[in-house]
Amino acid sequence: MVRIIASGVKSAEGEGVAYGSGVVIDENGVVLTALHVVKGATNIRVIFSDGSESEASVIVSQPENDPAALQPKILPDDLIPATLRSSETLNIGDEVAQCGWTKTRLNAWPRRLREML
User: Fold this and answer.
1) 65-74 pLDDT per residue, tens
2) To the nearest 10°, the Cα dihedral for 18, 40, 59, 100?
3) CA-to-CA distance for 48 and 80, rounded, in angstroms?
4) Third-level CATH fold of 2-116
5) From CA 115, how far away is CA 117, in angstroms rounded?
6) Is 94's pLDDT higher than 90?
7) Are 88 and 64 in contact (CB under 8 A)?
8) Distance, CA of 101 to CA of 66 (rounded, Å)
9) How far is CA 72 from CA 10, 21, 30, 90, 115, in A?
């Protein structure tokens, strides 16, 4: 998991800062997060679990379902991406984590994500 700070985000109250989280999904450091956290931001920062920070940019998004993929400029040396699996391969007792709400079938996520990237 990473923390995300998006500044320059516009809202009904004016310009502000949005906070969110994300998951590193590959060895290149691509971070999966929610588009509503970073949409319209003038600056996006990713904070890794070791405390290091990097500026990042949105490389792809899908507004109808709210995912966004970020590419940090600098990666920590000990980066370990999450392992993504289909829910169809899970067994009772397996540890799992869900990232956000997709508005679609969860087992369609990995395929859709690959298509986006």
Assistant:
1) 888 999 999 9
2) 40
3) 10
4) Thrombin, subunit H (2.40.10)
5) 6
6) no
7) no
8) 8
9) 22, 14, 7, 30, 20
Instruction: State both tokens at 32.
Output: 């999966």
Six-digit token string for 25: 């999904």
Amino acid identity, residue 43? N
- CA of residue 86 relative to chain centroid, distance: 18
SS3 79: coil
Q: What is the pLDDT of residues 18-51, one digit of tens each?
A: 999 999 999 999 999 999 999 999 999 999 999 9
By the 8 A CB rule, do 28 and 72 touch? no
Cβ distance 85 to 116 under 8 Å?
no
Q: Quick one: tokens of 48? A: 């890794």
CA–CA gap between residue 40 and residue 54 (Å, rounded): 18
